[in-house]
Fold this protein.
Amino acid sequence: MNKKYAQEGFNLCAAFLIGLSFLFFVFTFPVSLIFCIKITREYERAVVLRLGRILFEGAKGPGLFFVLPCVDTIIKCDLRTITFDVPPQEILTKDSVTINVDAVCYYQIKDPITAVVNVENAQYSTRLLAATCLRNILGTKTLQEILQDRELIANHMQV
């Protein structure tokens, strides 16, 4: 886990809220157990934010883990490869020819903490990045180059 995401400690007010949450859990034990035990699947990781800070253990999962009621927020990330279609784009090539191009994009989240902390919506950002990359790369080529070098362009677009 990166040290820049490590927990620096809580102040007195945060410690009071966490203690109050533990007391709430103890007093309502049988019922609160339903809300405090969470399950993540094999292909998911859960990023737990306690009072807005990432817990020092990092992403949790797969399996069972414990969260405090009213204090912890859970954000689940899917680690499977996700595919989507890039909508058709009208692109003006280098030789001033307008073409309609669509694409398929594959991506996979490798670090769920970075995906949660650094990007507001990773899936939407990836969609916009794919469409922008498609326009930028094809806009620098002529129509003849696009038709001849499809494999080279495809390799160039892979990250």
Summary: Residues 122-139 form the longest helix (18 residues).
